[in-house]
């Protein structure tokens, strides 16, 4: 029984790390130019903008220590055109969709790739 549990835990963490590494690739491809390789808001294109890209390493810190996953995903995907300085990314996430349940229990159809990206961003949070 314990062995099974260990296998289940290993399988789960393998899934989580796959999510994170897929997210890291997306981040490097689409976000680093503005937000910087480490997410500190210091990418080469970002420096040219009239408004500095956000430091993506402090999202949890500025949200009482909790990673604001829904807000982050909405920012990147949910409200195209609302943020004039960020490109429209919905085409990037035009892959498989899964049902995602947030902390409040609300479920929504969410692109797998968007969850991957958010999973990666969660790992770069500084406390
Ligand atoms: C062309 C430059 C540019 C690119 C590319 C870009 N961003 Fe941004 N981003 C910005 C700017 C500028 C801001 C701050 C102004 C604003 O909120 O619109 C911002 C803000 C954000 C915020 C809001 C942070 C907060 O405090 O709420 C998030 C999250 C974010 N970006 C994530 C991403 C992700 C993930 C990607 C890649 C899919 C990305 N951005 C690509 C320029 C960019």
TrEMBL record:
One of its GO terms (molecular function) is heme binding. It comes from the Bacteria. It holds the Pfam family Cytochrom_C. InterPro entries: Cyt_c-like_dom, Cyt_c-like_dom_sf. SUPFAM superfamilies: Cytochrome c (SSF46626). Residues 18-125 form the Cytochrome c domain. Keywords: Heme, Iron, Metal-binding. Gene3D superfamilies: Cytochrome c-like domain (1.10.760.10). This is Cytochrome c domain-containing protein. The lineage of its organism: Bacteria, Pseudomonadati, Pseudomonadota, Alphaproteobacteria, Rhodobacterales.
């Amino acid at each position: 029984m314990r062995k099974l549990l260990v296998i289940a835990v290993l399988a789960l963490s393998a899934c989580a790390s796959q999510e994170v590494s897929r997210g890291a690739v997306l981040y490097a491809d689409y976000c680093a130019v503005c937000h910087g390789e480490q997410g500190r808001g210091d990418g080469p294109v970002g420096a040219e903008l009239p408004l500095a890209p956000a430091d993506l390493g402090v999202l949890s810190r500025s949200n009482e220590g909790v990673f604001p996953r829904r807000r982050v995903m909405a920012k990147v995907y949910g409200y195209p055109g609302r943020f004039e300085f960020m490109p429209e990314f919905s085409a990037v996430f035009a892959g498989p969709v899964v049902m995602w349940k947030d902390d409040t229990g609300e479920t929504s159809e969410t692109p797998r790739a968007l969850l991957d990206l958010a999973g990666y961003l969660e790992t770069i949070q500084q406390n």
